[in-house]
């Protein structure tokens, strides 16, 4: 039997949007699309710091779902831009709960990919009673091995030319700790140095997020405003290991025993090399 490749649902505009004050000076941008009152769902974007795009609305059948999408703290249309204050995994988990309460639903389907899968797992393990189903893809559990593979040695062997551009802003004596070397520049007082580092960090991910070049995917990573927020926030989360114990998400997976879930794989040409891509039948 031949399986027909399904495409995204047609483009759709949100039926509601706004900003929600979540404390500590942060206001997060949210929007809802689909059918009001239909099955509730929330989409968690990647990064951290990547924001969501209009194409993410198209992951859900608009006739069946009432989906909420939001830009996590400091990125996209959320304010203040690129701010690291009170911006941790657990602040984001609390924000999801505030959004659920705002939406007026008891539980909802949680969908996340890449960093979004990390956040989805953290949220679901913290609030399993609020999750009707859990869908994750491109799973990233934020272990030291995963971070080292992407920012120290591993993916560097797959894209040696791009790796040379990534390490270029960092002196050789600091390259044994690339994440920390970048952190010093991204959080320093010199805005020009920070922006140079941000663009190098962001372009590295944008150009290696797929196995084959895709300008439509990587182009935004070169934009200064996007790169500054993306690099600062992502690096901030990663040097702090997501404010989680090593292996915490797998350790606490037993908390999801009553939550129906699916792990989706991306096609090989789209798979991010540093992240585990699995499928469960």
Describe this structure in words.
With 281 residues, the chain is an alpha/beta fold. The protein has 2 domains: 16-141 and 244-264, Rossmann fold (3-Layer(aba) Sandwich), CATH 3.40.50; 144-241, no CATH class. 35% of the residues lie in helices and 16% in strands. The protein has 10 helices and 7 strands. It has helices spanning 89-103, 115-126, 144-151, 155-158, 160-167, 178-186, 191-208, 215-218, 224-239, 248-251, and strands spanning 16-23, 26-34, 39-44, 65-70, 108-113, 131-137, 261-264. Strands 1-2-4-3-5-6-7 form a 7-stranded mixed β-sheet, covered by helices on one side. Helix 5 (160-167) packs antiparallel against helix 7 and helix 7 (191-208) crosses helix 9 (224-239). The longest helix has 18 residues, at 191-208. The two termini are 16 Å apart. Residues 267-281 have low confidence and may be disordered.
Q: Keywords, please?
A:
AB_hydrolase_1; 281 residues; Rossmann fold; disordered C terminus; alpha/beta; 7-stranded mixed sheet; single chain
Task: Order the strands across the largest sheet as they lie in space.
Answer: 1-2-4-3-5-6-7
Cα(first) to Cα(last) distance is 16 Å
Helix content: 25-40%
Count of helical stretches:
10
- Rg over C-alpha atoms, rounded to the nearest angstrom: 18 Å
CATH architecture heading of the largest domain: 3-Layer(aba) Sandwich
The overall average pLDDT, rounded, is 92
Which overall shape is indicated by the principal axes computed on the Cα atoms?
A: globular
- Could you tell me the number of beta strands? 7
Major β-sheet, in short? 7 strands, mixed
- Judged by helices, strands and strand pairing, the structural class is alpha/beta
């Amino acid at each position: 039997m031949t399986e027909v490749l399904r495409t995204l649902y047609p483009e759709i505009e949100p039926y509601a949007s706004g900003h929600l004050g979540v404390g500590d000076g942060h206001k997060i941008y949210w929007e809802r699309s689909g059918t009001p009152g239909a099955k509730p769902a929330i989409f968690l974007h990647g990064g951290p710091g990547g924001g969501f795009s209009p194409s993410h609305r198209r992951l859900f059948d608009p006739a069946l779902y009432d989906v909420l999408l939001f830009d996590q703290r400091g990125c996209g249309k959320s304010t203040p831009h690129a701010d690291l204050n009170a911006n941790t995994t657990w602040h984001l988990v609390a924000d999801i709960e505030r959004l659920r309460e705002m939406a007026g639903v008891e539980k909802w389907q949680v969908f996340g990919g890449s960093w979004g899968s990390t956040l989805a797992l953290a949220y679901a393990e913290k609030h399993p009673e609020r999750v009707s189903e859990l869908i994750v893809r491109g799973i990233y559990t934020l272990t030291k091995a995963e971070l080292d593979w992407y920012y120290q040695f591993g993916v560097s062997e797959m894209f040696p030319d791009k790796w040379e551009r990534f390490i270029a802003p960092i002196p050789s004596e600091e390259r044994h700790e690339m994440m920390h070397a970048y952190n010093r520049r991204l959080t320093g007082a010199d805005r020009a140095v920070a922006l140079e580092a941000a663009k190098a960090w962001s372009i590295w991910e944008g150009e290696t997020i797929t196995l084959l070049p895709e300008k439509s995917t990587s182009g935004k990573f070169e934009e200064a405003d996007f790169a500054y927020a993306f690099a600062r926030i992502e690096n901030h989360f990663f040097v702090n290991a997501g404010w989680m114990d090593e292996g915490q998400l797998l350790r606490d997976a037993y908390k999801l025993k009553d939550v129906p879930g699916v792990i989706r794989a991306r096609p090989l040409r789209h798979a991010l090399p540093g992240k585990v891509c699995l499928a469960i039948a």
